[in-house]
Amino acid sequence: MRLAPKAIQTFRDDFTYSNSPEAIQRFPFPFPEDEYRYSVNIEPHTPKEGPGSAYEHLFDIDEHYLSEMHERALVLKEMPERCLSMPHMDLAGWDMVERVMVSLTEDYPQHFTLTRNGDNWRWENKLLNIDDSFTFGNTGTLPLEPMEYIGRQMQGDFTLLDQREGDLYMDAGIITCPADWSLAFDAGMSFSEWHGPVPMAKDSTIFERALKYLTAIQVGKPVRRLNWTMTINARMDTSPETYHRWGHERTTVTPENVGEKVYLRVELQVLDRMPRSNALLFSIRTYLMSLEDIVTNPVWAKRLHRVMKTLPQALIDYKGLSRYHTTVVDYLAAFDKAN
Hints:
It is built from 13 helices and 10 strands. By secondary structure, the chain is α+β, with helices and mostly antiparallel strands.
């Protein structure tokens, strides 16, 4: 199944965001077992689950494309610092332009067209009515810096990780839908530094092994993993910068509204080596699904209940679930009577 982008819905104020039955069916449910545990959880980013799945292409475009581009524009208009790139990351930005444009043109030719004549390129994004000609590698021929230009046309957040001295550094990014982290705070940090707040994994070697794996990724061999948390209401932007707008919503969950207000928030994270700069493109594609949509799938309902019921307290606290975790478990128990 391939979903056509639908009219703009909102991720704030009246929260008109919703998933179609087809979008629910292709949701990347993140739990392979009844009990959640930290793992590297990385696999080659190759197609699986058939045509139309979230894993079919390098970059997933779905029915929420216009809504997410509208939300990104709203965030950047208010807080332009949510997009930043250090001077040495300019080449990586151009790498990203090429990777995105070529991939979208090959995977979604009905929406995107790239015409190349040497360094003279023409890019057409029919969904956003964009038709620009520019010289590849010449920032002055684009209306915006290269990473911001293409990042404003892509679902999900993006960072560009500079690799040096055997480590990865978050030196560029466009982050408008983060799960309670800040690009402004993490900018310039190393891999171990920005993972510092994660509990339980500090004393294990999981991040050490992950870094070793990531620094060895080769061009043309992207990898992926799934991450998850929960969000109240269909709110994409849960950044520390806007905490005053959404933090209190964690206290509004009741047994009567939990199915409607609590969303499972899944990140399809892809890491892809850039050919010229040797940077890693780290894309974070976010999917939101309300619990009342999750439980339309009996297998997901049972699995999520068991995962939430056995989730360690340290993870409940770290993911910000403390105030409504019990309410979620009680709600899901009705769909898992044997457990």
